[in-house]
């Protein structure tokens, strides 16, 4: 099956000459969750806005469910639900009406059951007759998601869905996204919360200065770039790293009670066996050993700073 979203050499140069997108290529399969990660100003919002027809690309093509975003704009846009970064809602409008109205904008017939279902899913049903201005910030954000889904789009863009949202609501949002995925909705989200990408996304695309540095399965990215740290807890504190362990990439904790050794999981030889033999030879008594893997956050920071050099 053809990818639901196909982006080919998409470029955007803003008036004034700033190149915000420098030839983006990206294919997204139906039902996939892709996290778009990148530092401030990387071009994430520009990419989303371009795909949604809010911003005109300078060159390149993109299709949504086979419809070209330029030559078949209306039909392409119909396939998309957009949850923008900023909350734009008319304060005096009613919650339920927002969803009905949004559906109507796409020329879809009124569907009370569908709108009620969305209101219930996002715990807004009891508030359906309230005005937007009576809602909390988190509730408003949920109205935005309900609105974006009211015309039954195939692809949902979430531009930083959980920015400024408390932990409980963030978890709710993750659950809602997981449920939408089960229904076959394709989701592209931008986030600064890297644990969010790690928890939800099937693939992660890293974008920096208008270019995609990499797109990879979340699990493979972790494995490919992941480093592990072996921590050796000691029975007796060490004042310094003993000469017998010199030349190894070791760090001693400030309290002298643990040594940590960072190694590449991809390497043919991790050096762990040699390290352990030397620890034993040096007469160091161990209390415990553990390993930890780098989080996506660490990988991401590494990648972005590597690119910056
Ligand atoms: N209308 C515009 N005119 C000129 N430059 C713009 C315009 N909109 C965005 N830019 C520039 O394009 C670059 C990419 O911005 P964009 O908003 O796409 O980044 P982002 O990755 O979404 O950032 P953030 O994480 O901060 O939301 C930035 O350098 C920004 O200043």
Automatic annotation (TrEMBL):
Native species: Pseudooceanicola albus
PANTHER family: ABC TRANSPORTER ATP-BINDING PROTEIN (PTHR42711)
Gene3D superfamilies to which the protein is assigned, alphabetical: P-loop containing nucleotide triphosphate hydrolases
Domain of life, per lineage: Bacteria
Name of the protein in its database record: ATP-binding cassette domain-containing protein
Lineage of the organism: Bacteria, Pseudomonadati, Pseudomonadota, Alphaproteobacteria, Rhodobacterales
Keyword set includes ATP-binding: yes
Presence of the UniProt keyword Metal-binding in the record: no
GO MF annotation terms: ATP binding; ATP hydrolysis activity
One Pfam family, short name: ABC_tran
Cited SUPFAM superfamilies: P-loop containing nucleoside triphosphate hydrolases (SSF52540)
Keywords from the named record: ATP-binding, Nucleotide-binding, Transport
The ABC transporter domain, residue ranges: 5-234
């Amino acid at each position: 099956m053809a990818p639901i979203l196909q982006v080919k050499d998409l470029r955007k140069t803003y008036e004034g000459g700033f190149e915000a997108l420098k030839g983006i290529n990206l294919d997204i399969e139906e039902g996939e969750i892709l996290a778009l990660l990148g530092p401030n100003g990387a071009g994430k919002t520009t990419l989303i806005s371009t795909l949604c027809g809010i911003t005109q690309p300078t060159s390149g093509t993109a299709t949504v469910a086979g419809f070209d975003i330029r030559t078949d704009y209306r039909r392409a846009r119909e396939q998309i639900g957009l949850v923008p970064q900023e909350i734009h809602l008319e304060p005096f409008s009613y919650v339920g009406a927002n969803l009905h109205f949004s559906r109507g904008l796409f020329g879809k017939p009124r569907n009370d059951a569908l709108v009620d279902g969305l209101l219930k899913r996002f715990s807004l049903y009891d508030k359906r007759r309230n005005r937007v201005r009576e809602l909390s910030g988190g509730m408003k954000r949920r109205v935005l998601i309900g609105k974006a889904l009211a015309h039954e789009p195939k692809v949902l863009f979430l531009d930083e869905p959980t920015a400024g949202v408390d932990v409980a609501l963030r978890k709710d949002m993750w659950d809602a996204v997981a449920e939408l995925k089960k229904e076959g909705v394709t989701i592209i989200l931008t986030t600064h919360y890297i644990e969010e990408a790690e928890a939800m996304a099937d693939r992660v695309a890293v974008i920096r200065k208008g270019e995609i540095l990499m797109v990879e399965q979340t699990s493979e990215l972790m494995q490919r770039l992941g480093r592990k740290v072996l921590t050796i807890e000691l029975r007796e504190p060490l004042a310094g790293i003993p000469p017998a362990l010199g030349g190894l990439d070791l760090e001693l904790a400030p309290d002298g009670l643990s040594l940590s050794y960072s190694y590449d999981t991809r390497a043919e030889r991790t050096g762990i066996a040699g390290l352990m033999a030397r620890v034993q030879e040096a007469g160091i008594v161990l209390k415990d050993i553990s390993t930890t893997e780098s989080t996506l956050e660490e990988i991401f920071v590494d990648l972005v700073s590597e690119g910056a050099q």
